Amino acid sequence: MRTYRVTLSWFVASCLLSLTAWAQAVVDVSAEGDFQENLQEALILAEPGSTIRLPAGRFELQTALSLDVPRVKLVGAGMNETVLSFAGQVAGSEGLLVTSDGVWLEGFAVEDTPGDGIKAKGVDQISFKDIRVEWMRGPNAENGAYGLYPVESTNVLIDGALVKGASDAGIYVGQSQHIIVRNSRAEYNVAGIEIENSYYADVFDNVATHNTGGILVFDLPNLPQMGGHSVRVFNNRSINNDVANFAPEGNIVATVPKGTGLLIMANHDIEVFGNEFADNESVNVLLAAYPREYNDANYNPLPRGIFVHGNTYGRAGWQPDKAVAELIAPATDLPIPDIVWDGAVDGIWAAFFGPDEQDRIVINEADDTTFANLQFVKDMILPWGASVLTDISDHAGSREPLKAVSLPQEGAN
Amino acid sequence: MWAFLLNCIRYTTVILLGTATIASAQPVNDAALMGSRPAKMLSEYGLFADAPNQLPNDRVIAYDLQVPLFTDYAEKYRFAYVPDGQPATYDVTEVFTFPVGSVLVKTFAYPADFQLPDENIRLIETRLLIHQEAGWNAWTYIWNDEQTDAVLKVAGKVLPVDFVDASGQAQSITYVVPNKNQCKGCHTFDKAVTPIGPKARNLNKTIRYQGEEKEQMVHWSDTGLLVGAPDLNEVPRVPASDDMTAPLEDRARAYLDINCAHCHRREGPGSTSGLFLTYHEPNPTAWGYEKRPVAAGRGSGGLDYDIQPGDAAASIIHFRMASTDPGIMMPEVGRSSVHTEGLALIRDWINQMK
Asked: What is the least distance, in Å, from the CA of A18 to any CA of chain B?
């Protein structure tokens, strides 16, 4: 009897405790009064592991928001129902900054930030679910640079996002590792989706349309994390990218030609399959070396070990822009072939006999797919130049498929 | 007469005050400093003998920096406190190691007229960096309208501030009190909250205590605030920005060091940019020489390099220092106006660069 009572009271006590814990773990941000202060205070005072709920409505913010408490879920009423507008922002270089691990952002919109939309820096397990970032006036050089901007982070999930109007990249993942970008839509940005200086990324089931360039996989010099690799781009639609480049000069994306489906610059071990590339007026797929001078002995500017297979190609290259017009069109004529490799390789041997097997560009596409290897390096070496190679079968072969990325926030180990 | 004297002292607190003569009855409230929750009112810590006049309590030492961070021309009164018998430890390059229980205090204030800097001073906020068992904690307190005490504010605040500047021009600025997280935006070293200012090279200067010229580093050692300092001639020193006897490059690098390098260093929040502006950074590309932007967005201003040697107008560093647009300006927090003098220093340095 005694034992029973003790057990029962323990049971009651633990129920009460967990109820209390649960009650504390959800905070509703009030739409009454000073919303900026209500929300920022909630973000600062949140307990680790708690949920902060944003009300439906449109809210004007004056300064940047920031979240530095681990495992917080920040959840709105939906990407069109809860809108955080930063049109009147006076301070802070982004709308929301996340600097703690395990944060989950879901169901709200960030509009019209003078700088970046949502930035997560140096964190583990950051998730963006059904988030919208948009500059309402459409493409404009005065728009902020990045919509969703995780950087120097691990285990990055971007799912169901909509990003419009970024003057650099709509969805940008930089210097990060273990990344999934899926089910998202990027429109009217300079770059729709950009994976930069990153390792182990899966980009799939996205739509990139009406950008300058749809999907970019870049690696740049002089950065703490370089040597981007192990990126899979698959089952995306990168179509109708028809917006003139509006990025401020100086940024690498300012060089992206209007109407680029996919641009892989530097990086190694990239797999591209099952995508649809169509109606891109410069080129559907471009594999290129970093085009600028740089001062960094540890940097490799070449794309190596690229495997392109099983994609579909629609109309492209009828009205090229920038470098595609200046450097590629004179060599290939119009339309620009579906897949273009600049042929920049590492040294004389590779220029004449092709790169080592692990660095080869391997292409397995339907018979009617057009291709050009511009042989830029060989062209520079030989006094009489080198002609463009258009035989896609030179690149036949196969490569070991890259492994899928799995993330701990989705229950993977 | 007393009011006038107090005002004089208040304005020059940083460089004038000795503390021994103004001891109040109550010592600093160590328990409040170590509490798991911050005090609601600044006065609860007992850091001041006379807080409205910024006269510190006994053992709270006023100090000054060789090159300060620019914060919209605000006057700053800085104080350091360590627990009794537990001095900070000297470090030749990084911030001194302060023991648990230490606090660094910085009050931001504006005189109504910078031509009469010792009159009508409005205290805006007092920021505390408190070293607790779990690490440094940052809190800010906003002064009430009566200027009698300051109240804790974790979510930050935007405050309009009007003043007449040193040239007699009326100025209206939007002063932004940072939220608690924004403190971390700058005060982060390898992901931990850390002080920025109290480094040997930036504290090594002469300063007036009780009307007497004194070496600040010597004063810190004499008052038990610091141990381990070598002979003064072995302590590094950065030149003041207006010290025309010092090389231009040293002054410019010192300015960037204190204004930028808390973020722009390998261990700081700005590491992603690859631009590293610490005073001793040896790699020219890393400190901006013909370095291309990475994620600058419209912060690039359409320019190719952070520093275009010989051409400040074509240099991104100069462009971003000259802006007050939140999507462009650098530093990204802490100012809403342009530091004309700092900008001129960087302009001169870049323009003469080969």
From this structure: 23
Sheet of strand A260-265, all strands in order from the earlier edge strand to the far edge: A63-67, A91-98, A116-121, A146-151, A169-174, A191-196, A213-218, A260-265, A283-288, A339-341, A371-373
Residue A222 backbone zone (phi > 0: left; psi -120 to 50: alpha; other: beta):
left
Question: Beta strand A57-60 with B188-189: parallel, antiparallel or unpaired?
Answer: unpaired
CA separation for the pair B63, B77 (Å, rounded): 8
Structural contact between residues A63 and A92, judged by C-beta atoms closer than 8 angstroms? yes
Structure-token pair, residue A161: 């996002």
Query: Which one of A116, A144, A223 has the shortest CB-CB distance to B274?
Result: A223
Chain A hits for B155, Cβ within 8 Å? 36-37, 40-41, 44
Q: Chain A, 106-145: which have a CB under 8 Å from a chain B CB? A: 113-116, 121-122, 141-145
Q: In the structure encoding, which two tokens stand for residue B159, read together?
A: 């405050």
Residue B335 near residue B323 (C-beta atoms within 8 A): no
In DSSP notation, A320-357 reads: --HHIIIIIHHHH-SSPPSEEE----SSHHHHHH---G
CB-nearest partner of B295 from A62, A141, A146? A146
Determine the Cα angle at A293 with ends A289 and A298, to 5°: 75
Dist CA B83 CA B179 (whole Å): 27
- The label of the residue with tokens 């007036």 reads B208
Indicate the residue of B272, B291, B329 with minimum beta-carbon distance to A174: B272
CB contact under 8 A, A249 and B304: yes
Inter-chain touch B299–A40, beta carbons under 8 Å: no
Tokens of B202: 């930036």
Most B CBs within 10 Å: which of A45, A63, A190, A295, as the mutation test of the B interface?
A63
B→A interface, C-beta within 8 Å: 154-156, 158, 174, 176, 179-182, 184-185, 191, 266, 269, 271-272, 274, 285-286, 290-305, 316, 325-329, 332-333, 336
Mark yes or no for CB contact A90/B299 under 8 Å. Answer: no
Most A CBs within 10 Å, among B157, B287, B292, to test the A interface: B292
Is A266 near chain B, with CB under 8 Å? no
Query: Given the DSSP bridges, would you call strands A229-234 and A199-204 parallel, antiparallel or unpaired?
Result: parallel
Question: Does the CB of A172 have a partner CB in chain B at under 8 Å?
Answer: yes
Q: What is the pLDDT along chain B (354 residues), one digit of tens a residue?
A: 344 444 444 444 444 444 444 445 799 999 999 999 999 999 999 999 999 999 999 999 999 999 999 999 999 999 999 999 999 999 999 999 999 999 999 999 999 999 999 999 999 999 999 999 999 999 999 999 999 999 999 989 999 999 999 999 999 999 999 988 888 888 988 889 999 999 999 999 999 887 899 999 999 999 999 999 999 999 999 999 999 999 999 999 999 999 999 999 999 999 999 999 999 999 999 999 999 998 888 899 999 999 999 999 999 999 999 999 999 999 998 999 999 999 999 999 999 999
- Short-list A255, A209, A177, A62, CA closest to B174: A62
Strand boundaries in A167-251, DSSP class E: 169-174, 177-182, 185-187, 191-196, 199-204, 207-209, 213-218, 229-234, 237-239
Query: pTM, whole model, 2 decimals?
Result: 0.89
What is the distance between the alpha carbons of residues A166 and A147, in angstroms, rounded to a whole number?
6
3-state secondary structure of A275: coil
Minimum Cα–Cα distance from A94: chain B residue = B327
Alpha-carbon gap, residue B41 to B320, rounded angstroms? 37
CA-CA distance, A102 to A97, in Å (whole number)?
14
Nearest CA distance, B293 vs chain A (angstrom): 6
> Which residues are B226's β-sheet partners?
B88
